[in-house]
Specification:
mainly alpha, 2 domains, about 0% strand
């Protein structure tokens, strides 16, 4: 159920784009993201920082896209999101000497500190990669190509998350 809630805004975005245009799709994305956050808030009683950040970026970049009738804003939103995440993880690690991943997930996962360090580094690099590849496609390809990249580009996060799961599983404490 949670999986469907997380992905229905982007799914509706693709459908609206295929049926109409990027501006209709942007409006649908904005509305669907608000609905998503309301559902999550209703179920959990709160929104995680990532949901708040995504909502703010979708509404901000969506409003710029619609208000200025310029599709570049919505196309650059993922790059800003990934760049912000990479920067936050890097600042947490190198400046504040904090591992934000460990702070967020440490209660659910008992892992050695060196594993948390590697996870943090891998998430930083992943976010830089995803932000850079989105920027490249947004800058040098058509909107149709960008939408196809967004659809089929889900291979990257899927592969990364599966890889992270396999890595984490190897380091979880063994149950007696």
């Amino acid at each position: 159920m949670k999986f469907l809630i997380d992905f229905f805004p982007i799914l509706l975005f693709f459908v609206a784009y295929k049926l109409n245009d990027i501006y209709t799709a942007t409006g649908v994305l904005m509305l669907a993201t608000v609905m998503q956050c309301l559902i999550i808030y209703r179920l959990d009683g709160r929104l995680q920082t990532m949901h708040k950040l995504t909502l703010g970026l979708v509404l901000g970049f969506g409003a710029l896209t619609l208000g200025l009738h310029d599709e570049r804003f919505i196309k650059w939103k993922p790059t800003v999101l990934y760049g912000g995440l990479a920067l936050a993880l890097a600042l947490g690690h190198y400046v504040f000497k904090r591992n934000f991943l460990h702070m967020l997930l440490g209660a659910q996962l008992k892992l050695p500190s060196w594993v948390w360090h590697r996870l943090n580094l891998s998430w930083m690099l992943y976010c830089v990669f995803m932000g850079a590849i989105n920027a490249y496609v947004a800058a040098y390809f058509s909107t149709d190509d960008w939408m196809n990249f967004k659809l089929w580009g889900y291979v990257f996060p899927l592969a990364f998350i599966i890889g992270q799961g396999v890595y984490v599983a190897r380091h979880l404490p063994k149950e007696d």
